[in-house]
UniProtKB/TrEMBL annotation:
Listed GO MF terms: pyridoxal phosphate binding; threonine synthase activity
Protein known as: Threonine synthase
CDD domains with a match to the protein in the record: Thr-synth_2
Organism: Microbulbifer agarilyticus
Pathway involvement of the protein, from the record: Amino-acid biosynthesis
Amino acid sequence: MKFISTRGRAPSLSFADTVLTGLASDGGLYVPEKLPTFSREEIAEMAGLSYEELAFRIMWPFVSEDLSEEEMRGVIERAYSSFRHSAIAPLIQTGHNEWVMELFQGPTLAFKDFALQFLGQLFDLLLKKRGEKVVVLGATSGDTGSAAIEGCRHCENIDIFIMHPHNRVSEVQRKQMTSVLSDNVFNLALEGNFDDCQNMVKASFADQSFLPDGRRLVAVNSINWARIMAQIVYYFHAALSLGGPHRAVNFSVPTGNFGDIFAGYLARGMGLPINQLVIATNANDILHRCISANDHSPQPLVHSLSPSMDIMVSSNFERLLFDLHGRDGAAVARLLADRSAPLKLDESVLEKARTLFASERVGDERTVEVIRQVFESTEYLLDPHTAIGVEAARKARKSQAEPMVCLATAHPAKFSEAVDKALPGTKVPLPHHMADLMEREERLQILPNELSAVHDFISHALG
């Protein structure tokens, strides 16, 4: 299988080269040349499979020309061996035909573990086969960083640099990153916001002259196709657990960068019956405004109780735009040529998007109320991001007869401020393997919001 750029000018690549390239040379994102599909009968036959076997079945068509079956099964087995729950992504009922899928059972308590434990193992395999050493550079609004570090910290052929916005992630999120003291791990606290961090990653990929000879950047952010691919699996897992493919199963996804919900869109394209995908945003609602009012204008970033969604530039939205424009890379390149200008979609394109997606915006005050209400009615505690997904699902839901699955993207212990506002005095203990997290030694570098400062630090650290 070949992978092509959303902007149409970069060369097509194999799966392995796509994973190790990240951002395409024309500034676009890689997508499969053709999406593999499964018949309803083939999907039905997957019912009852373990999560690991299901992951192999779903992802194998994308990788079969680059990896052996034994290699792929090994990557999957190692990736999910550190998850605390044997179901990997258990489902919890929170209302009539309403379910929460717990995606925080991995080592860093966030849904990013599904993709980044897999990606770390994949990097290790590919780099050893090629005898190559690379530099991972990533940006995080909170959860990607710790998951990427956990996935890559044991890789001998990787040095990893993760930027986070200084004082704009939760204390638990920060400590999960900065308390990893491995020699190949570097945490950079940038005096800016997440979009600044993300823009620096993109600029660095465009000009890598600051790196020592023989080194290159690879991406762990959701611009990396392998991350999106790994996330497709849990949509199939949830649907098969709730009666799919014999009935449609719908999903509500708290999202800022559009990667997680784009994986659901791909699952639908691969044959999974999904009638509704709900985009759930916080006050940083550019995705909701785009779908509901064709308003994609950037606005000042708001610091919220759901910091992992404090994003105004949704990188993966470009992948959807590519499909909405008939996979015309030139059209996407023209549309995104001036990122300072408000993006407006043609009405025909907007209507296509609205047939696929609903959207809702949920502010901090309502988020706190939902956490309290769900706990009082079910004794189940939501983190603020998941609460936004639950509220958006309840507001946008079209059919009570079809199961609605809300993606629980993080453990509530990571967001004690929101929990305390909803349920004063409630202490949510961290899982046993993190019980001493707040006492662990930290190591990080605070840097100004300047690309040259970031490049100088990386160059010096690499010697």
